[in-house]
Write a structure and sequence with these properties.
This protein is mainly alpha-helical. The chain has a domain at 5-48. The protein is 51% helix and 0% strand. It has helices at residues 5-13, 18-30, 32-48, 72-78. The chain starts with a helix and ends in a 12-residue tail after the last helix.
Length: 90
């Protein structure tokens, strides 16, 4: 039975345990298709190389300050939340 792709990826990455690695080695000795797949995976790994570590981008918009936030309570104190017309309107 062929190892699945996850097992072969782990084999190439070197993250298999000794027993699993030995099982894959034995399978690869007699399976040209899996050997080719492992070789292709190694080529991909070499081509990808080591990823460049970068700092995440800085947020371009600062979080609003508490005094800049709009709320219904602030609207009432400024008269914006009132549905009643002012005394001089009309």
């Amino acid at each position: 039975m062929h190892p699945n792709e996850t097992t072969l990826n782990d084999y190439v990455d070197g993250s298999l345990g000794a027993a699993e690695r030995s099982d894959v080695d034995q399978h690869l000795a007699g399976c040209a298709a899996c050997r080719q797949l492992v070789e292709d995976l190694r080529d991909i790994l070499r081509a990808a190389g080591e990823p460049e570590l970068r700092e995440p981008p800085v947020a371009r918009v600062a979080a609003p300050r508490a005094r800049d936030r709009w709320s219904w309570s602030s609207a009432r104190t400024t008269g914006l939340g009132s549905a009643r017309p002012s005394a001089g309107a009309g």
